[in-house]
Amino acid sequence: MTPISERPARRADAELNRARILDAARASLAESGEATMQAIAKRAGIGQGTLYRHFPTREALVLEVHRHDVGELVDAAPVLVAEHPPREALRLWLDRLASYGQIKRGLAGALHTATHKQLAGEGYGPIINAINTLLDACKKAGVVRTDVEAEEVLLLVGFLWRIEPDDDWSIRTSRMLDLVMEGLARG
């Protein structure tokens, strides 16, 4: 029988493997939405059996990558508001959203195979809440228009998923986000 003192190490090792799988899957799927489970396991430096113990299907893995990324975006909003002036916090969060948009672009094919309604239901509300957190801080500080709604901001930044991932991506994205920020500015 395994001594109790060794069991937490296994759990920590399992969590480490899970994190490695998610990182490898995110990178592999961003490069190609057609990345195989075998390629992801190889990139993570684990066996396929370990991968399938954590994620029994490719769809389960893709959904978890998406959930993890959305969770990081949502969790960043209150942290940014606490650490930066409201307008700067909003811009920093939009920059993170742009980076996520670039990753999601690579995931598009893989995400398309997953249940779209499930993804929308899980991600939309929390993202809107995160934007509301940022907008509320900006409105309270008087740095954005008071008539702006979170849903409108999300629609405005929809271009992030349409910008081609070329050498000018970051320059064009930054310029367009500057335009969004100017449009949100109060009077």
Helices and strands in order, then pairings?
Elements: H1 7-31, H2 37-44, H3 48-54, H4 58-83, H5 86-113, H6 116-141, H7 150-156, H8 169-184
Helix pairs in contact: 1-2, 1-4, 1-5, 4-5, 4-6, 5-6, 5-8, 6-7
GO molecular function, one term: transcription cis-regulatory region binding
InterPro entries: Homeodomain-like_sf, HTH-type_TetR-like_transc_reg, HTH_TetR, Tet_transcr_reg_TetR-rel_C_sf, TetR_SbtR-like_C
Keywords: DNA-binding, Transcription, Transcription regulation
Describe this structure in words.
By secondary structure, the protein is mainly α. The protein has two domains: 1-56, Arc Repressor Mutant, subunit A, CATH 1.10.10; 58-187, Tetracycline Repressor, domain 2 (Orthogonal Bundle). Helices cover 76% and strands 0% of the residues. The chain has helices at 7-31, 37-44, 48-54, 58-83, 86-113, 116-141, 150-156, 169-184. Helix 1 (7-31) crosses helix 4 (58-83). The longest helix is centred in the middle third of the chain and has 28 residues, at 86-113. The model has no long low-confidence stretch (mean pLDDT 85). It comes from Kribbella kalugense. Keywords: DNA-binding, Transcription, Transcription regulation. Residues 15-73 form the HTH tetR-type domain.
